[in-house]
């Protein structure tokens, strides 16, 4: 998977080896931000969110890092009219040689929340006027949101969840614990930090869900064990639930025990069935009303699911989604889990020509079915990358992908409906000739809110040993992807790297997530969450 992604990005084969060696030696090492390996430069970790006619774009920019030199920023830009016009760029954060900010963004109504790292501290800013202005910076506590070049499956150490005037944040602290804080006043202030994990083991990758006053957090413990050739320990997936008014969370429960608790003593059932979990990793959680849903991968690379209908008190026995609904196909990337109007969705990338599978349950997770999707063959091909899919509240499906070959570099879009195989329309948003000296478009993003669809990407104008010019490009549709406006340049960026060409290519791969899973899945955000 790593090698495939590198080929599609035209990185020399030797760099694939370099990446693999880096990954083997540094995965799951929790390092303070100031000590982390940092060769990133230019624009990276770009992200976007849409709510109604509002579009919010966030990115990091590093002029270069070498021997303690560099200039790092977190920038924000927004539109309130469906991408027709944009406000000025806002600098939310500036530092010297630090490229470990890993910002996270969440949107709720007119509120925009941003969290990022600052050399061992977790910082937070809130806007209550659609991003026009931001309040004072709040220090949430010590910790980190990412390490070693790229946030992603290996360490993605934080999340923001917004609901009405409440804001919940979780992150990894420097001692390997999961920390939780909440705000009841639109992010203006926060309650005291709560240690959710309460463990001597290393806890990482928290995920959070909420329904009403109930809060649910999942995370991985000893995740490094999964990557050992001869494991001497076992990766665990844990769950904790809480009730918002008192701001507390119950004791964490291992998922393998939780998944069988509705059948009586979990350890007894575990021994009777022989169906214990094997290296569970990358857990996800979703909630809707009194229903709570869990999703995780195991050592066999299969995808497992469990559900409960009593606000996290008990859960069903685990279901092997890969075996029962995906013809035994294991997932090769981190799947997406979400709920919509009482239905449960799981989107996973599968090997071979199957590409991406969408599973849906209409009975609270007791049974699933494969949903027909408008998926062009090119979207599933080995030549495509940056694949993304959005399922909207009214059942529309939006797809975005890139084609990078020795003859062309293209970003394409398609639209349809989740239960139909035909594509309603397909559009090439950008098409350029292959120029060896110019990197292909990167940081490709797809976001949507109702019929407003936005495609964004980072385009390199030129790249030399002495400088690199980049542009953040956006194209918008207000009719559900039937037509797109002309390309809008959101920002021109000039970077002066402080290291050689080979190191620059390695840094660019790290910065754009080259060593993590190829697919990035984005889900439509409800404008009226229940």
Could you explain the architecture of this structure?
It is globular and about 55 Å long. It has 4 domains: 32-195, Neuraminidase, CATH 2.120.10; 198-266 and 278-356, Neuraminidase (6 Propeller), CATH 2.120.10.10; 372-495, Tachylectin-2, Chain A, CATH 2.115.10; 499-529. The strands form 8 sheets. Strands 13, 14, 15, 16 and 17 form a 5-stranded antiparallel β-sheet that branches. A 4-stranded antiparallel β-sheet has the order 1-2-3-4, with no helix packed on it. Mean pLDDT is 74; it is low at 1-39, 148-154, 258-275 and 498-530. Strand 5 and strand 6 (111-118) form a beta hairpin. Helix 1 packs antiparallel against helix 2 (13-26). With 530 residues, the chain is mostly beta strands. It is 10% helix and 43% strand. It has helices at residues 2-8, 13-26, 255-258, 266-273, 321-325, 377-380, 501-511; strands at 42-51, 54-62, 72-79, 90-95, 104-108, 111-118, 121-127, 138-142, 158-163, 166-172, 178-183, 194-195, 203-211, 214-221, 236-243, 248-249, 253-254, 281-288, 291-297, 303-308, 319-320, 336-340, 343-349, 356-361, 369-371, 384-391, 396-404, 408-417, 425-433, 442-449, 452-463, 468-477, 488-495. It starts with a helix and ends in a 19-residue tail after the last helix. 51% of the residues are buried.
């Amino acid at each position: 998977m790593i090698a495939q992604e590198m080929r599609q990005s035209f990185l020399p084969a030797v760099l694939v080896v370099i990446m693999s060696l880096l990954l083997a030696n540094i995965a799951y090492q929790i390092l303070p931000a100031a000590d982390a390996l940092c060769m990133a430069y230019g624009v990276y970790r770009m992200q976007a969110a849409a709510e109604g006619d509002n579009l919010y774009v966030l990115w990091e920019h590093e002029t270069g890092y070498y021997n303690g030199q560099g200039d790092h920023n977190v920038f924000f830009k927004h539109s309130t009219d469906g991408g027709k016009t944009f406000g000025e760029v806002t600098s939310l954060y500036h530092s010297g040689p630090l490229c470990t900010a890993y910002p996270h963004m969440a949107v709720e109504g007119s509120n925009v929340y941003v969290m990022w790292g600052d050399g061992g501290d977790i910082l937070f800013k809130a806007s209550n006027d659609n991003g026009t202005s931001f309040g004072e910076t709040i220090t949430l506590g010590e910790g980190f949101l990412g390490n070693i070049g790229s946030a992603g499956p290996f360490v993605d150490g934080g999340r923001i969840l917004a609901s009405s005037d409440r804001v919940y944040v979780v992150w990894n602290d420097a001692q390997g614990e999961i920390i939780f804080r909440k705000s009841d006043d639109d992010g203006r202030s926060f309650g005291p930090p709560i240690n959710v994990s309460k463990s001597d083991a290393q806890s990482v990758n928290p995920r959070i869900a909420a329904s009403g006053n109930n809060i649910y957090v999942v995370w991985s413990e000893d995740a490094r064990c999964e990557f050992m050739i001869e494991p001497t320990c076992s990766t665990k997936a844990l769950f904790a639930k809480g009730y918002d008014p008192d701001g507390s969370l119950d004791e964490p429960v291992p998922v393998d025990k939780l998944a069988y608790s509705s059948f009586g003593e979990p350890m007894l059932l575990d021994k009777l069935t022989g169906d214990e979990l094997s290296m569970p990793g990358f857990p996800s959680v979703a909630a809707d009303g009194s229903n709570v849903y869990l999703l995780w991968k195991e050592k066999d690379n299969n995808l497992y699911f469990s559900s409960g209908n009593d606000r996290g008190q008990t859960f069903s026995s685990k279901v092997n989604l890969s075996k029962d609904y995906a013809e035994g196909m294991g997932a090769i990337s981190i799947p997406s889990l979400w709920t919509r109007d009482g239905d449960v969705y799981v989107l996973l990338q599968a090997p071979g020509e199957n590409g991406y599978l969408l599973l849906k349950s209409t009975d609270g997770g007791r049974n699933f079915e494969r949903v027909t999707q408008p998926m062009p063959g090119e979207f599933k091909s080995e030549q495509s990358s940056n694949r993304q899919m959005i399922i909207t509240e009214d059942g529309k499906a939006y797809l975005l992908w890139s084609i990078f070959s020795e003859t062309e570099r293209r970003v394409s879009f398609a639209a349809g409906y989740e239960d139909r195989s035909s594509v309603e329309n397909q559009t090439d948003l950008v098409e350029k000739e292959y120029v060896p000296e110019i990197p292909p478009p990167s940081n490709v993003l797809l976001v949507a809110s109702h019929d407003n669809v936005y495609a964004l990407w980072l385009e390199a104008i030129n790249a030399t040993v002495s400088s690199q010019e980049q542009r953040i490009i956006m194209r918008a549709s207000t009719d559900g992807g039937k037509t797109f406006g002309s390309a809008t340049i959101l920002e021109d960026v000039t970077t002066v790297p402080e290291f050689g060409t080979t190191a620059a290519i390695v840094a660019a791969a790290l910065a754009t997530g080259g060593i993590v899973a190829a697919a990035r899945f984005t889900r439509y955000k409800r404008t009226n969450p229940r």
